Amino acid sequence: MEIVLAKSAGFCFGVKRAVNMAFQAAEEDENICSLGPLIHSPQLVERLEAEGISVVNDINAVADQSVIVRSHGITRQEEDYLHQHKLKVVDATCPFVKKAQKYAGLLGAEGYSVVIVGEQEHPEVQGILSYVQNAEVFVAADVETAAQIPLGKRVGLVAQTTQAYENFSSIALKLLERSKELRIFNTICDATSVRQNEARELAGAVDVMLVIGGYNSANTNRLARICREILPHTYHIETANEIFDSWFDGVERVGITAGASTPEWIIREVVAKLGKVQ
Amino acid sequence: MEIVLAKSAGFCFGVKRAVNMAFQAAEEDENICSLGPLIHSPQLVERLEAEGISVVNDINAVADQSVIVRSHGITRQEEDYLHQHKLKVVDATCPFVKKAQKYAGLLGAEGYSVVIVGEQEHPEVQGILSYVQNAEVFVAADVETAAQIPLGKRVGLVAQTTQAYENFSSIALKLLERSKELRIFNTICDATSVRQNEARELAGAVDVMLVIGGYNSANTNRLARICREILPHTYHIETANEIFDSWFDGVERVGITAGASTPEWIIREVVAKLGKVQ
User: What structural domains does chain A harbor?
Assistant: First the structure.
């Protein structure tokens, strides 16, 4: 059985950077926590805990500790809180997420109705949202939602960085129909579309596709959905332990990709396990 | 035979305004010309000439006369020329065209690569184009052209006011693919899309469709194309004289629409002639 691993599988630039910053911070600082799990990988969060980085989900529970801000970023209110309490901050917010926050803020400041493409409950979306001040701001996960938003004549659009481009552009098109001026910042990260396009191509060239990543990772779920549209024999797994040999009966080629928050060692374990499939 | 006349057939707001301004000016001023034909209707231009308004195609040929600026507008250079030569100007530029000129200028001033959706040689496009200063500016008639434009990361988009919305939005979508920021002013005049939608609907409900308007009128040509896609039995005519009875053999319903620069009396003549078809 041939195993084809997507070049773009796994950590993106922002996640790699955040993970490096976290391990580095753990070396320098003993009393440190991350605000929410650093990335959507329970396995990596476990390793970080072993290094002394606890996860704190409620900012009020942070007690005189250093705080790692994860790649998704935080809300402006949380930022203010950390500042007011003079807590030491390791800001591992992805630079691309920072840009989305900045552009959303700029659109709000210039009087646009701001629309963010993404899922309302996604922490990155919550962060971006909070940077829009004194302006109307809406979250649209899909075209149907975008069609219902009560808009002004001047509309500004940004995206949560891991959104699918097709969804983003469909929403842009719907908003163009409904506005006189539409100012769009394409804040989708290239890494995401590169990974998605490679996954799409790979899914069309293999018999079975494995997508590795946290079940709570939006970008991994999206990746699995994209592959499944091309190839129904697509399996979303978190670790090598979830693999069943029977998936590969009569299979000649298996493709592998992984979400932006899937650690390298988990991908290696999956490849190793597949090598042993009879 | 039932005759259905589209509600939106004929003069739009800007043309009605320009024609009224021209007849008014002819009453007040004996030495007056229009820079280019006032609207794309040879029949109306003839009437204006009878009122003493000559057509001057080259601005350098204007000699101490009052000048009517037609609804399409003029270039910034022509505007400057008229100003410098202290000529009396009756500015009948359509207010919607003025907006397109203004937004194109604003986008250029704010450092965007400016794209104008329209035909390069259209006088309105030439006018809009000239208001972009110290910035790159391109004209795209279709998606294929838009795909080739050498763009910066920040792209601004406006449209010649009588463009079809579908073409405009397709070009917007292509430019979104190719830029980081896309700022769109939808400068398409509502009257155009209302007229186009009504024509599309009417063409689907009749056996023969007549589209009345100058052969040199871009918006009339587009209207005829839209109808022909729905109904091959669509005829583009300039006057009632061009109608052949044989077009209506066995026909139960005939639909009529007319371009933005088609005078009311020409539409009436066509309706009258159809009433006499055996």
Answer: 2-10+192-275 (3.40.1010.20), 13-93 (3.40.50.11270), 96-188 (3.40.1010.20)
Condensed to tens digits (0 to 9), the pLDDT of residues B150-199 reads: 999 999 999 999 888 899 999 999 999 999 999 999 999 889 889 999 99
Asked if the Cβ–Cβ distance from B176 to A169 is below 8 Å, we say: yes
Contacts of A173 in chain B (CB under 8 A): 169, 172-173
Say if residue A278's pLDDT is above 80: no
Contact B186 A169 (CB under 8 A): no
Contact B4, B253 (CB under 8 A): yes
Q: Which of B84, B70, B71 is nearest to B33 (CA)?
A: B70
Mutate to test the interface with A, among B153, B154, B161, B182 (most CBs of A within 10 A): B182
Question: Is residue A261 pLDDT above 90, yes or no?
Answer: no
Chain A touched by B178 (CB under 8 Å): no
Tell me whether 0.90 is exceeded by the ipTM.
no
- pTM (2 d.p.): 0.84
Q: Is residue A28 within 8 angstroms of chain B, CB to CB?
A: no
Q: Among positive and negative, which fits the CA dihedral B163, B165, B169, B170?
A: negative
Angle at A19 between CA A194 and CA A7, to 5 degrees: 25
Average pLDDT over residues A74-90: 94
Q: Touching check for B186 and chain A: CB below 8 Å?
A: yes
